[in-house]
């Protein structure tokens, strides 16, 4: 019997806690969600969360729901973690928030973990503050592409965009119509420094992507690039599942 996938639906996956160790000696709390047993990942999402001083963490809802759904629906591995000094229900990462400076080691630790774990087809996914971290520190040879949600372009600089442009890697920029920081028209102008960038305005959406239809839109845009065979995502599920209780 098919069941609608709702905001609280947790689909089957192999989920394991992970610890990322940075080059400057910090342990970061994280989780890796893999497709259910017997299925091989078709791609990997290395996620970078919103600003921790404004409530961002590895469990921010777009990423939490990605870990709940995308391993089962799209055969994607989802790596989430708390940057330095960030606390979530999974625990607190060592260190202190460093205004996007020391976080370069956090980004590299996550990329290296995905590499050492031999996870395939690795895409960096940034959201808000995480987009700045991705632009500044994520252009690693082992990363195949970049997807940005609600980029404020607050910490990153034009030279960071130029570096991604020179890489030739796919860059997808999802910009809410009513974003608090950067809206679609201005985003198109500023991301023109990346010739291959695809800037997509999302009608009705706001910076935090509140609302299931916006979460589904973000997930579908991600899956369309990372594992197009699974696009569009199913909205119902046949089989066992759990329900998250707040």
UniProtKB/TrEMBL annotation:
Lineage: Bacteria, Bacillati, Actinomycetota, Actinomycetes, Catenulisporales
InterPro entries, per the entry: AB_hydrolase_fold
Highest taxon of the lineage: Bacteria
Listed name of the protein: Alpha/beta hydrolase
Organism: Catenulispora acidiphila (strain DSM 44928 / JCM 14897 / NBRC 102108 / NRRL B-24433 / ID139908)
